[in-house]
Amino acid sequence: MTTARILFPFRSAESRLWLLFGISFLIHFGVVLIVGHFKNPILWENGMIADYLFSGRGFCGDFSIKAEQTSWQAPAYPYFLAGIWSLLGKNSLTYLIISTMQCVALASMVWPMTFLTRRWFPLVPEVIVQVLVITAPLYLWYGTRLHHTAFVMALNPWILWGWLKWGGRSIPSGLIVGVGTGFFALIQPVILGVYGVIGLSLLISAVSSRQWRAMMALICAGVAVIITLTPWTVRNYRVHGKLLIVKDSFGKEFWMGNNSHATGTGYAIGGMEEVTNLYPPKCFSLRGLIKEPELMDEMGKEAKQWIASNPAAFLRLTANKILWFWTVAPKDRVRTTGAAEAILFRGVYVTYWILLLGFGVVGIMVLRPGGEYLLTLLIFILFYSLVYGLTHVGQARFRGEIECVFFPAAAAGIFWVTRKVFCRGSKPLEK
Q1: Would you say residue 237 lies in a domain?
Q2: 267 pairs with which residues across the strands?
Q3: I want to staple 359 with a disulfide (CB 3.0 to 4.6 A). Which of 137, 308, 364, 413 is the partner?
Q4: Domain carrying residue 230
Q5: pLDDT at residue number 426
Q6: CA 301, CA 384: separation in Å to the nearest integer?
């Protein structure tokens, strides 16, 4: 009898998943109640834009000109907040309901993470990755935050599973995967690069092996992504007069990571203030006089000028950022105000990540998954290293959005180690 069968004595693995989903939801919801962030939440830029939507003034912000039409943030979460407020009002109960919805999304990860682990490490008991997903500290924490991160964390494994399992299955399934990816990008556009490369890799594989049905399905998936994004892209062009697929904040993030006062994170030394507030760029003298996209462009130009004048410092800072993204940023360079989770839970997070990474390396070396998993892992690592190496690091949610990709390998490592320790006389693993 397997470990999973002993712990969860149900007839099928699928029925156990419903139980695990319920357990995961209750744990996440319990953390929401204990933390109590819903009583007086910080909503950041998403909340500011949602306030404008709720008051009937449109998708507006205050980055440059007050109450101007904005593309500072991706649209999905502000519209989500404003829609819920319109139905239920703005109060603690409404925020608790939103947090509950985020807990449902995070709890649902047990399904795609189980499916992905079956695909990549079929010998590993599913219960291991399921426990990892349920108890991951970042997923527990961000379920309590009124922020789009919880949905990004939850949707990543679903969309990944969709591309790998269903993207090339048929034209209808390809269309569904493409539409899902498009909506996902309206929450977090960074994922477009990752899934664009994954989709292209699958398409090349289908063409090289002459799988014409898979090729057509994948092409339809790509077209569906573009069609889903087009209405918002057209809106951006009408508002700003320039092509912005989803949002226009890259110039700001690029400057924050590349200027004479840059620390590698978004914060100045000490973590009390964002670098933009303490050492604002020169172009901030134009704030309120030029439109948001123009100000973003000016910030990007200043960053490029600094890089051109300080190439060695840029390379050194970029290397540090990539290192810190995959490890942990120095304590004096992360946010120390507000909830300050980077400080409060630093020990927990570092310990959890070291164990996750250590077991993941063991799992890959010993159980040797196929090329699909290794390529997927490599795409995530390279793309996120590029994005955050060029911008800035220091917030746990940046890497937390994709840490689920390491879970199957970590589950394999845990399985191998526990088997070595507790089952010394057992037969060697065979695929």
Answers
A1: yes
A2: 274
A3: 413
A4: 167-245
A5: 60
A6: 22
Angle, CA 50 vertex, CA 183 and CA 156 arms, to 5°: 30
The answer to whether position 206 is within a domain reads yes
Residue 19 falls inside a structural domain: no
Single out the residue of 389, 383, 426, 390 nearest to residue 192, CA to CA. Answer: 383
DSSP sequence for 311-357: HHHHHHHHHHHHHHHHS---GGGS--STT-HHHHTHHHHHHHHHHHH
Residue 418 falls within a domain, yes or no? no
Provide CB contacts within 8 A for 52, sequence distance 6+. Answer: 58, 59, 60, 61, 67
> What is the per-residue pLDDT across 366-404, written as a single tens digit (0 to 9) for each?
999 989 999 999 999 999 999 999 999 998 999 999 999
Which residue type occupies 153? M
* Token pair of 69 as six digits: 């039409």
Q: CA dihedral in degrees (373, 374, 377, 381; nearest 10)?
A: -170
For residue 362, what are its two tokens? Answer: 């063991």
Please report the pLDDT score of residue 8 as a whole number: 47
CA-derived radius of gyration, the chain: 22
Pairing of strands 68-69, 60-61: antiparallel
Q: In this structure, what DSSP letter does residue 290 have?
A: B
Take residue 253 and report the two structure tokens written for it.
Answer: 């993030």
Which tokens sit at 21? 């989903």
- Count how many domains the chain has: 1
